[in-house]
Amino acid sequence: MSADYPSMTTAEIRSKFLNFFEERGLKLYPSSSLVPDDPSLLLANAGMNQFKEYYQGKKTMKEIGAISCQKCVRTNDIDCIGEDGRHLSFFEMLGDFSFGGVSKQQACTWAFELITKEFMLPLDRLYFTVFTEDDETHDVWRSLGVDEDHISRLGEDDNFWAAGPTGPCGPCSEIYFDMGEEVGCGSPDCKPGCDCDRFLEFWNLVFTQYDRQEDGSMPELPHRNLDTGMGLERMAAIMQHKTANYDGDLMQHLIKLGEEISGKTYDADDYSGASRSLRIIADHSRAIDFMISDGILPGNEGREYVLRRLLRRAVFHGRLLGIEGAFLTKFIDEVNAQMGEAYPELLKNVALVKGIVASEEERFSTTLDNGRVYLDEALAALADGAVLPGDVAFKLHDTFGFPIDLTVEIAGAAGHDVDMDGFTACMEDQKARARANAKGDAWGSFNDVWVELSDKVAATEFDGYDNDVIDGAKVVALVRNGDDQLIGAAQVRRVFRASPAVQICHRISSSYTFDRHGDDDAVPRHADVQPPLLRRNQCGCFLRVGDRQYNAAFIRFNAEQVEHALHGCPAPMERDGQRQAEPFAQVREDLEPLRRDDGDHIIHAASSQSSTMSKSPYCSGAAAVRFARRS
C-alpha cells in the first residue's frame, strides 16, 4: 500500500478544491449563514442548504454549477464529541453542485482528477461505493482506471438519497481512503461500509435523477442534479497523514492552546480524561465563535439553546482540566487567528463575541459552583449503580440552573443513570403551574405568546443600520392582552445577520400613542418605553394583520427615555481592575452620549435573551419603531 503522497494544510486544501472547480466554470458562492433561510432547519448543516430553490426549480443558474465551502453545525451527536476521532459539532463542507449543467460522467471525472492529480492520493488506497443497481456510475469509475475490487455495491440505506417517500431521489457514490490495516478491525472481509476506522469516507457524490411516485415508479427528472460534499476536516486528516479529525492542523492549534492553559498533555490515542476534554473545548470553541458571529445569542430555545449548551459544556470540561477562571475568550482569539482570513465575518464583531462569551462563562461558573456541590452530595448518597431521582435532577435544573444534559453526563461518569421520566414529569408540572399563574398576568402571557408564535411568524429582517425609514412595512400579527397575536410586528425586507444585538426583530412593539399631527394621519409623537410595553392604541388608526399601509422608522428618544433605556442595560464588568467587554457594549456606547443632551436622537434597536435582563422591560427583545400611514 502506497504511503508517499504530499502533505497540505487545511487552508491549501480549501483553496485547491475551490480553485479547481472555479477554473472549470462553476461559480464560487460564499458560505451561507449558520442561521438558514429554510424554516425547517435549526442550523445550516450541509452545503446544499443554500441551493435548495435551485434544486426545486424555483431559481435558475446561468453557470453550469456552483461551489462553496459551507460552515455547518450538527447537533445530534454532541454527546459523542471527544469520544472518537470523527464527531464534530462545527465542520466545513466543500461541495460542487449542478442543476442540469454537469453530467454524471463529468462529475466523476472531475472528482477523480482532483483527488489523484491535484491532491495526488495513491489510487491503490482509494475505494469507491455505488448503489446496488447503479451500473452507470460503476462503469464510469471502471473507465477511469479503478480496479473492480476497489468498487463495492451497497444498498439503499447506504447509497441512495431521497427527500422523502415520494419526490426527488437518486443514487450516491462515496469515495473512501484506506487509513491502514493498523486502525482496522482485522477482519479479512473488512471493506468500505465496515464499522471500523480503516476506511474513511471523505467525499459523497449524490446524483438526484429520479422522481419517485406513490406507486413506486421512478421516472427521470427533467434534468439531473448533482450534490457533492467533501468534509474538509476529514480531508485534512488524510492529507496530513493523520487518522483523526482532531489531529489536523486547525484542531491541533486549539488543542495545544488547551494544553498551555491547563497544563495537561494531549494523547491522540486516548479518548477519555484530559484528552477527551481538550477535544471537546477545541471543537466547541469553533462552533461558539461562528454561531455568535452569525447573530445567535445564548438562550433556552432552539439554536440559542444549542449555543448555550456548547458554551456551558466547554466551560465544564475546562473545570475538569483544572482551569480556574475565564478561559474561553482565548480560544475565540485562536479561532479567529486560524480562520478569520477564510471567514471575515469572524473579525467584524470580535469584542461583542468575546463579551457574550465572557458574560455567559462567568454566569455559568457560578451555576457550576453551586449546583455541583448539590449534585455531588446527591450522587454520594446513592448506592452503586442506583438511579438519580428525577426530582433531584429537576431541582438542579430549576433551582440551580444546572442543565439536564450536564447532570446526565456527570452522573454517567459516576456510574449512575438519571430518571428522565421523573425529570420530565416534574418539568410538565412546572409548566402547568406557570400557565395557571400566567392567567390574568399580561406580562406572563406576553412572554408565552412570543414562544408560541415563534413557529408561526417568519423571522423578520433588520434594516436599521442602513435605513431610518422603510416603506411599506407589513403587519404580520397582533397581540392583545396576551392573546395569540403579535402587537404591530413589522416585517422589513433585508437581512442584517451580522448584528447579534438584534435577535428578535419580529417583536417590534407598536404600543405608542397615535395622534393627529399636522398633515400626517396617525403619526406617533413618541413611544412609551415604560413597562409593560402594552398600551391601547389611542386613535382611530387600526393595525390589521397583512396590512402594508405603514412606513417603519426609528423613534427619536429624548434624554429622559435614554436614561431609562440605559438603566435596562447591564454595566460593563470589572475584573482585576480592568473594564471588560460585555454583550451590550455597543448599545451602551450608542446611548451614553445622549445622557446629557436634551435633544431628540435616533438610536439603534437592541434586544437580549440574557437572564441578567429578566427584570428589564427589554428582556424579551423590543425594537423602537413607529408606524406612519403612507400618504
What are the key terms here?
single chain; 631 residues; nine-stranded mixed beta sheet; four-stranded antiparallel beta sheet; 17 helices; disordered C terminus
Describe this entry's structure for a reader.
There is one protein chain. The chain has 631 residues and is an alpha+beta fold. Helices cover 35% and strands 17% of the residues. It contains 17 helices and 19 strands. The chain has helices at residues 10-22, 52-55, 104-118, 135-143, 156-159, 232-239, 249-262, 273-293, 302-320, 328-339, 350-380, 390-400, 404-413, 420-438, 442-453, 559-567, 585-591, and strands at residues 27-28, 66-73, 90-99, 126-131, 151-154, 160-162, 167-178, 199-212, 220-231, 469-475, 490-491, 512-517, 520-527, 550-553, 556-557, 574-575, 578-579, 601-602, 626-629. The strands form 5 sheets. Strands 1, 2, 3, 4, 5, 6, 7, 8 and 9 form a 9-stranded mixed sheet that branches. The protein has a 4-stranded antiparallel sheet with strand order 11-10-14-19, with no helix packed on it. A two-stranded antiparallel ribbon has the order 12-13. Strand 8 (199-212) and strand 9 form a beta hairpin. Helix 8 (273-293) packs across helix 10 (328-339) and helix 12 (390-400) packs across helix 14 (420-438). The longest helix has 31 residues, at 350-380. It is globular. The N and C termini lie far apart (77 Å). The model is unreliable at 438-447, 484-543, 548-588 and 590-631 (pLDDT under 50).
